[in-house]
Design a protein that fits this description.
Length: about 300
């Protein structure tokens, strides 16, 4: 497969959409990003990376980090994680509070904010420093030692973080948060603030295409656990648009309000696309179209 030629076709296909939608405004530091950015990268399972547009430009990973936090919590911990968080699509917005009360403080899945807060809480208990553990893992897998937290983003999220604080306190009232809520929120905001490029993210996500094997060929997850994460990405990775994403793209995927989306073709490659203009459900407009175009052009989907 000539991935470079495919990327160039995809970029041409989606050019009219670049700049559509609007950057996330509820985190003021994210609203300042130029909505006309577009980049896309593919890493094959051997680690060769192809790219187009702004594929080397770092952006705010946001909820994409929820995949990596889940992988680390599964790698360090055990199946008891699934007693504290479900694995069903929520059908609600990523930051919704509404299901939590009638489901007794157990979030629907690890990729909505409530579920990700539980996963970060578990990782914090397991490692004592959830966000540093995550950053170190991402540096190793991407081969980029310069990856860092963006303190301006983390501070902006914290300053406007009442909704995430509400989710965390509410779950704590059900006994589903073990660490002090403020400690958990700090790690969660640091986690979301990590800056990475499409190239970095395709390399870091490669264990999902390699059935659980890390970049150095050591095992992070069992084959079965890698399948489980890919399955939850497919069904829950783009929140209340997961059905539409599966319909159009047909791959496990995880989006973030920074405008990035990571997708996985198990056994073949990982993809990352970035364009900051978001639709009403918080997913990149041009990013979704680019992944749709990729699977249509190549036939590389899980279906
Ligand atoms: N940091 C963001 C939040 O907590 C992440 C949301 C997202 O990327 N969907 O609201």
């Amino acid at each position: 497969m000539d991935y470079q030629a495919v990327l160039e076709r995809v970029a041409a296909d989606v050019a009219p959409l670049i700049g559509s939608g609007s950057p996330a405004e509820y985190i003021p530091a994210l609203a300042a990003v130029d909505p006309r950015r577009f980049g896309m990268a593919i890493a094959d399972v051997d680690g060769k990376v192809y790219g187009v547009g702004d594929w080397r430009h770092p952006f705010s990973t946001q909820s994409i980090t929820k995949v990596f936090a889940l992988a680390l919590a599964m790698a360090h911990g055990d199946d008891s994680l699934w007693e504290r968080v479900g694995r069903e699509p929520s059908g609600n917005a990523f930051n919704s509070l509404v299901q939590l009360e009638y489901e007794n403080g157990i979030p629907r899945n690890p990729f909505i904010n409530a579920g990700a807060l539980v996963v970060t809480d578990i990782l914090q208990t397991l490692t004592g420093d959830a966000s540093s553990e995550l950053l170190e893992f991402l540096r190793q897998e991407s081969g980029n030692p310069d990856l860092a937290f963006d303190s301006a983003i983390a501070e902006s999220e914290s300053a406007y973080g009442d909704r995430n604080a509400a989710l965390a306190h509410f779950m704590a009232s059900y006994g589903n948060i073990a660490n002090p809520v403020q400690t958990l929120l700090d790690h969660y905001f640091w986690q979301c603030s990590i800056e990475m490029s499409c190239a970095d993210l395709t390399l870091a996500a490669r264990f999902l295409a390699r059935h659980g094997l890390r970049a150095d060929d050591s095992r992070l997850l069992t084959r079965s656990e890698a399948k489980q994460i890919n399955a939850v990405m497919l069904t829950c990775g783009t929140y209340d648009a997961a059905g539409e994403f599966a319909y159009r793209v047909g791959l496990p995927g995880k989006s973030g309000v920074g405008g990035g989306i990571v997708a996985v073709v198990p056994g073949r490659c990982t993809l990352c696309v970035w364009s900051p203009g978001l639709d009403a459900r918080g997913n990149s407009v041009a990013g979704l179209a680019a992944l749709d175009s990729f699977t249509t052009l190549t036939g590389l989907s899980v279906f």
